[in-house]
Amino acid sequence: MSRIINIGAAQMGPIAPDESRVSAVNRMIELLKQAKDRGVNLVVFPELALTTFFPRYYEEDISKMDMHYERGEMPTPECKPLFDKAKEFGIGFYLGYAELTEDGHRFNTAILVDDTGKIVGKYRKVHLPGHSEYDGKRPWQHLEKRYFEPGDLGFPVWRTMGGIMGMAICNDRRWPETYRVMSLKGAEVIMLGYNTPDVNTSAPEPNHLRMFHNHIVMQASAYQNSCFVIGTAKAGIEDGCMLIGGSCIVQPSGEMVALASSLGDELITYACDLDLAKMGKETVFNYAKHRRIEHYGIITSQTGVIEPPLDEAAE
Ligand code: CDT
């Protein structure tokens, strides 16, 4: 028997710094309407889907950035129309946004809302890229380490909408640990949103590698963890900074089964048979049978590299 869930990646074009929440939410509702017409059960929106990617701007006083964060419980009044429409359509969704907690903590967050409108899960980005102080050598900043704390919720998964679902956010997708922790909890679908500039200002590498790396990490991870990966971009030129698109749906074989073709608001969909994830987990990636944890200890006890000592005799 198959377990099919129709999933959509709802890529969004740029959000201007002065674009209102109402406008961003209306764009998401438009994508939800397309999802409804195409029989979609679950939609994945991008990272920081309600605002421009504000970590590109430096502000000495972090509180001056408060307008980019959502405070209090979701749905906020501005987001309520999105929640209402999704519930009316019976569509679940992943939503990325900047969270400012009651006690003043700032996180890059995503929530998972099921097809009845209930918030079933929250994830806070663990792998924050970039830097925390102004860097005059960059054409634009990437100040996630200034504006967010590392997530404090780990990598939970949730049994919902007929499958086992997990979430990640942008830079998390480059780290194998992200997927492995969730797949050790049985994750069949891993959803993630991203905002990835087409230039890596911290490393001299050709621009085409940005898309290559974007896809290779999601495809390899889908295969190695036998799960679907849904990657959704915020794309296009946002206040002068080009963000790559390439939103995609990857099945557990590692094959890409849907790919966005534009840099704007665009919905791509695929009928995901979750039993395909089960198959890999019971064979090549049957962890209980094949993992050799006695050799993996340094993965959790060590961060930086410790090389073997130099062979002085050979020098
Ligand atoms: N948003 C985000 O995590 N972006 C990073 C860009 C890193 S370049 C400093 C990414 O991994 O795509």
Automatic annotation (TrEMBL):
Signal peptide range: none
Domain CN hydrolase stretches: 5-276
Pfam families linked to this entry: CN_hydrolase
Keywords from the named record: Hydrolase
PANTHER family per record: NITRILASE C965.09-RELATED (PTHR43674:SF12)
InterPro entries (UniProt xref): Aliph_Amidase/BUP, C-N_Hydrolase, C-N_Hydrolase_sf
GO terms, molecular function: hydrolase activity, acting on carbon-nitrogen (but not peptide) bonds, in linear amides
Biological source species: Thalassobaculum litoreum DSM 18839
Name of the protein in its database record: CN hydrolase domain-containing protein
Protein's UniProt keywords contain Hydrolase: yes
